[in-house]
Specification:
Blueprint: E1 2-6, H1 10-21, E2 25-29, H2 32-41, E3 43-46, E4 52-55, E5 59-61, E6 70-75, H3 86-90, E7 93-101, H4 131-135, E8 141-144, E9 149-154, E10 157-162, E11 168-170, H5 177-188, H6 199-220, H7 224-229, H8 231-250, H9 259-269, E12 272-273, H10 275-282, H11 288-302, H12 307-326, E13 344-345
Parallel strand pairs: 1-2, 1-6, 2-5, 3-10, 6-7, 7-8, 12-13
Antiparallel strand pairs: 3-4, 8-11, 9-10
Helix pairs in contact: 6-8, 6-10, 6-11, 6-12, 8-11, 11-12
Length: about 350
């Protein structure tokens, strides 16, 4: 199968290497030093068991139009990175091209092929101009939730931290032939990829943690276990999660894990930095609207009060604007003579 990974970063790179080594014809869209390293040496993957895997037989480019029509496009860009390149993404489409959407947070397509009272509604937080919805026909899309944690340890090298689960599902809930085919493709590459009849419920389950712990950590520089073990941090997370659960309930979504279990699960991850905190420390654009802004919008759509989520959203939105306007990074530094503890990054 011809597979193009648009955004061959940590998660896209993990998928790309394993699919290439499983015998698929893989193209990787990357840029900068990462692209140069892939072209020179291939893309290396270091798994959490210490094993090294190198995919040399891949096409690596920054120009999507060079790749031609694909069977599968794995869209692994951050949500706010999609609209500027939607025209290029469309050059990858043939009549039957499938788009596997692998974004954190609530996706732009949430109400597409939904079937409910909000069917077809545009989520302006993640698709403000409707350009993504117009550029990618909903019938092409398979939803996907990325549970693994990984990082680019240096250009051309992906380090896998934990997890191999990528559940997928049709937007209308059907267990289709093509969903089964993509599931088998991923399983053949070593992933766990069950086909779900309600992919939105699974998206909410992951977003439940992302909309809470990512912004809190970005604002406080606390790790997951720090947030959960600090009384006020724990209570703030619980208030946000309770509000999110009420919003999801108004959309017919129930959670298969209790709120307390979800917080306990985050605490067990330990002293890990969220992806948003990592971006704050690197001076990168934040995924604020996909992770939390879309939930604020869904609260408005459903008429559900969410004052705590709104307040945290406003604060982290201001932080992100300051980082972009001033072109700065915000990183905690140890006091003189103190060595910082080593921390890993979690998505």
């Amino acid at each position: 199968m011809k597979v193009c990974v648009v955004g061959a970063g940590a998660i896209g790179g993990l998928l790309g290497v394993r699919l290439a080594l499983a015998g698929e014809e893989v193209s990787l869209i990357a840029r900068g030093a990462h692209l140069a390293a892939i072209r020179a040496r291939g893309l290396e993957l270091i798994m959490n068991d210490g094993s090294h895997h190198l995919a040399r037989d891949v096409t690596a480019t920054s120009r999507m139009r060079e790749c031609g029509p694909q069977d599968l496009v794995i869209l692994a860009l951050k949500a706010h990175q999609i609209e500027p390149v939607i025209g290029e993404i469309r050059t990858l489409f043939g009549p039957k091209t499938i788009v596997l959407s692998v974004q954190n947070g609530i996706p732009w397509w949430y109400f597409q092929r939904h079937g409910g009272e909000h069917d077809g509604k545009t989520l302006h937080a993640v698709d403000p101009n409707g350009a993504i919805a117009r550029g990618i026909d909903a019938t092409r899309i398979l939803g996907c939730v990325a549970y693994p944690a990984a990082e680019i340890s240096r250009p051309g090298v992906i380090r896998h931290i934990e997890g191999m689960r990528f559940p997928i599902g049709e937007l209308d809930g059907a267990v289709s032939e093509r969903a089964t085919r993509i599931s088998e493709l991923l399983v053949n590459a070593g992933f766990k990829a069950p086909v779900l009849e309600d992919i939105r419920a699974e998206i909410w389950l992951k977003a439940w943690g992302n909309l809470t712990f990512n912004p809190i950590s970005a604002l406080t520089h606390a790790t997951l276990s720090d947030i959960c073990q600090h009384p006020e941090g724990h209570d703030l997370a619980a208030h946000m999660m309770g509000e999110a659960q009420a919003i999801a309930g108004q959309l017919g979504v129930t959670f298969r894990v209790s709120l307390d279990k979800r917080i306990a699960g985050a605490e067990r991850v330990g002293k890990h930095k969220t992806s948003m905190l990592q971006d704050v420390e690197a001076g990168k654009s934040l995924e604020t609207d996909a992770l939390i802004g879309a939930v604020v919008e869904l609260a408005e759509v459903t008429g559900t009060p969410a004052p705590t989520i709104w307040a945290v959203y406003a604060a982290v939105k201001l932080l992100g604007a300051t980082i972009e306007r001033e072109q700065i990074l915000v990183k905690a530094q140890p006091l003189a003579g103190e060595a910082p503890p080593r921390q890993r990054v979690a998505g």
